[in-house]
Structure formats: structure tokens, C-alpha cells
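Hey all, sorry for the wall of text incoming. These are the two entities for the joint prediction.
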Amino acid sequence: MINGKNTVVFALGGNAILQTNDRGTLKEQYRNLKETVQHIMPFLMREDVNVVVTHGNGPQVGNALLRSEISKDTIPPHTLDVCGAETQGSIGYMITQTIQEEFYRINIPRVVVSVVTRTLVNTDDPAFQNPTKYIGPFYSEVEAKKLAEERGWIVKEDSGRGFRRVVPSPMPQEIIEYKAIYDLINHGHLVVSTGGGGIPVVKRDQRLEGIEAVIDKDLASAVLATELKARQFIILTGVSRVSINFGKPDEIKLTSLTLEEAQKHLSEGQFPPGSMGPKIASAIKYLEATDGDVLITSSEALFPALKGEDGTWISRG
Amino acid sequence: MINGKNTVVFALGGNAILQTNDRGTLKEQYRNLKETVQHIMPFLMREDVNVVVTHGNGPQVGNALLRSEISKDTIPPHTLDVCGAETQGSIGYMITQTIQEEFYRINIPRVVVSVVTRTLVNTDDPAFQNPTKYIGPFYSEVEAKKLAEERGWIVKEDSGRGFRRVVPSPMPQEIIEYKAIYDLINHGHLVVSTGGGGIPVVKRDQRLEGIEAVIDKDLASAVLATELKARQFIILTGVSRVSINFGKPDEIKLTSLTLEEAQKHLSEGQFPPGSMGPKIASAIKYLEATDGDVLITSSEALFPALKGEDGTWISRG
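and here's what came out:
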């Protein structure tokens, strides 16, 4: 049914919104977004391409959770899924406004629309047996154990700095809203979606139940790109090219990779779990299911990369 | 272009999500939503009708702002427009989940999708000269004046209980995303939109700028219903019928009203500004621009009302 030959899914990197030394103000977020959007605008404005923009929410959902916990004696606290939904609203709005501003400037009538997005995960995902993602504030052991009892949390010690809550990071299976997103892009709208990897939901007793978990945004974007049969899946990050032997004297910046090479390097531990690893895994996930291409690069290098002069291209080969 | 003869815009009342004695927990919000949705489900599931659900965000945006202020020494605070966007994410998610659950139960494949929605207001709206809507926490006079200086707020004394920030409540002019909403409903999706009246934006220097203001959700819903050329605009509230001489011995519950009668009663001050007033004004706004009908009733009375046995119907007459 879906013919997505002109569709591109664009996963913005965390640094597109908040950078390492930022405090987390709205001003910083708008400034970073504007810089990123200006880099990629010549691409976003192409009339022959349907565009979906996805984004992370790491620092923002951490802040939402922290606000909720700091205020919990005054206002009933929110669960993690609801905090994630909040950040989809706020970040979605900021991205929408930023792209729309550039469109207005050059008289492009395209509407930018942000969709609250849920991501289905399996109830039997092994991640639920072993939650590994630290979220929210640090607590003393006593406080942490009290909260674990009161709120049903799982808490663990985090690198000797205190106790924190941990949640699972299950594999995304389906973007619940993908048909709606498909219909929107095929009417020429630019869609912002799957923020923070989507709000995690499971199917239980024939209904969707929101759960407290985090989903990798690149993996979720790969699922969306596959469902939309996107022609290209572009992952923006802090570096212009993927490296092997990263940080070593024999580091090699890769100009292209086949699916098989990507699988080999990933299984050999070439890509760190917290950063390039999930991006390569996302590329593999998408390439195994489609005929498209993946580009991993920075926003600054996007244009040279599209001309084949920068970035790392990955294809089935 | 737009033929909305089968479209219904459904404005949920504040009590559909939080009720007077609720503390504001997520559990309460889901419980209230479930009750409302079950009342209106036989309507939402009709295949011959395109449905858009809109909702308020009064208590929730107040809480978002309060969380942001309580935490402001730890996390940079959010502006009111971003708080509004957050609540569109969280409430949109909760409504979506609640309706979707009912659809799953009876095997309806319709996707429920929540759209982050911006509402255009005019920069020269007289409301900007005289902000009247109290928002956020109470402060002492000293604190309030300090905040006014630091943050550019306007503060006023609120009914002798302390000082609060005031923001303008301008008239909604356009729902920025209405074409996207139109496309979604015409593909059979049920859309949740225009939460809290939409995030207010103004056109300035050829761009959309988010502003700190509040928009009446019924008035914004009337604008959306007009743009979608909706056949019906249903406003759910706490009472099953609109009254004149409300609370007096000669109170009359109205079964129907013409546009002209509604205008007359409104101008005679029959409807209180904070409650029924904006609902009647919204009905008038919609009826002046379309050929549709308005129904004002409670969720419990929706079905008798649709059969003409309850509710207040308003039409051009």
C-alpha cells in the first residue's frame, strides 16, 4: 500500500537541541535548533521529498521528571510516559516553530505539524527483566529504597554517585501513528514525530497501556522509516563520519559501508553502546527491511555528504 | 475546497479531565476521561462521521507552570507557551490512549492521533492592552514586583489573596494546523487537537512567534469547526442544558435557540463570562460563518440530546 520512494526520515541528534555545556534554557534550545535547521533547510524545502523529522528528548525528559519530583509535595507527580508525552509537546512545538520560521522567510506554504507519537514494544522484551537506563535524580540509599517501595520503582547504584531509578529500554516494534504520519506527508505536510523514540506502550488485554521505559530514538526512527518505506534514513549526529578504531592511531573515517560490513563492525564492538552503536544498529534494522540508503553525518556536513563528499553512506551493497 | 459535511468538532469540558474536588493525579484524569469517553463512544465510533476532539488545559497548564516555578533554581523555567505545548503532549496522549482503548475493545481499527496545535492571534488584539487572566502561583507584593522586573511579567492583586501574574486572552483567528487536521480526518483518523485553545502565536516580521497568553478553548474550537466546515459543533459541559435566569426562581432550561436569540441573551448578560458566556459566544462565532448546528450539553446527556430529548440546540433558525 505504502509507496515511500520520495520519503526521507531525518533523525536529529541530541546536540541539535541541547549541547554539552548548555544549561537547558529555552533560548539555548531555540538557538541550537535554528542553527541545525538552517543547515538542513535546503533539503527540507525540496518539493519532491516527503520529510519526517524525529528527535531525542534525553535532557528534556530528565528535566520534566526532575520538575515533577521536586514539586511532588505540591502537585501529584507524573509517570515517565506522561513526562515523555510532555516533551513531545514542548520539543515538537519548538522544532515546528523553528522550521516554520525558515519556511515563512522564503515563502514556502508547507505546514509543519508535530504528532504525539506512541511506540509499541513487546511485553516479553528481555529488557523488562533487566532495566538498565538510569533516569531522574540521585538519592541516598535510604531514600531510594523508600521510593522503590512507595512507587514501585527499581533503583540501582549509579557509578558510586548515589542511587537512581532504572527503567528498561525495550526494542521498538511499531509506531502506532505511522499511517497518520504517512497520510500527512503524502499531503505535503512536514511531520515532526517519534520524539524521544516515542511514548512506550504495550498491548495488554487487547488494549494499549503506557509504560515507564525509554526507547532509543534512532531505533524507533528506523522502525518508522521502514513502515513508511522511506527511500532514505538520515541520522544526524555530532560527527561528520562514522569511524572504526575510534580515537586510536589507526582510526579510519568511513565513507561508505555495506550492510554486511556494518553488521561485522558492530558485532566486533567497533561502535560504543551509548553513542554510535545504536545508530549503526538502527541503520542495519532499516536496511534489512527496505531498499533504501542510510546516511550518518553531522548537520554541518549534510550538503557535502549528499554530494558524496562527506558523511558515511550505508547500503545493502 | 473543504467539504466538511460529515465532520463534527467535539469540545470536551474541563470536568471531562479534572473535576472540582480532584487533586490532579494522573489516575483521576484517566478515570474522568474514561467515563466521558464511554458516554460519547457510540458517537465517536460512527464510521460516517469525521471526528475532531478538542479539550481544555486550565488546571494542567497551571500545574506545569507551578512545577516550572518551584524548580526554577535547579532547572531553567519554561514560558507559558511551552507549558501549554507540554500539556497538549500529556493530555493529548491521555485522551488518545483512552479513546484507543475503547476502539480496541470493540475492534475498531481507527487510529487516534493527537496533533500539537498552534492558534494565530492578532498582534493588535485589544486583550494585549489589558491582560486579565490570572495564572500561576500567588506571590507577596515584593516578590511579585521583583518577578515582574526580572521576567517582564505583568502582576496584579487577585481578589485580596496576594499578587499573581496576569496574561492576555486574545481572540483566536486561525488554527495553524487546520489543513493537516482536515487531511487526517478525511483519511478516517480521529484527531485530538487545539488543546487548551492551542498554543498562541502571532505573525511578526513574516514569522510565527509564540507568545505568553491564554486562548479560550471553546472559541478556538469554533474557529477550527469553521475552518473544517464542520456540520456540527458539540460543546460538552457540566450541565445538560443552557439556562436563562440561571439559579433564579424563573430559570428556564432552553431546548433550542436561534442564532439571533443567542446573540440577544448574550448581550443581555444572561451567560456568566467565566463559564457559559464563552460557550455561547463560540456557538455564535461558528453559526455566523457556517451552515452547521451547535449542541451544548453534558456527556451524560449526549445521547438523549442527539435524539432531541435533551441538550440545547442552536442553529441559524
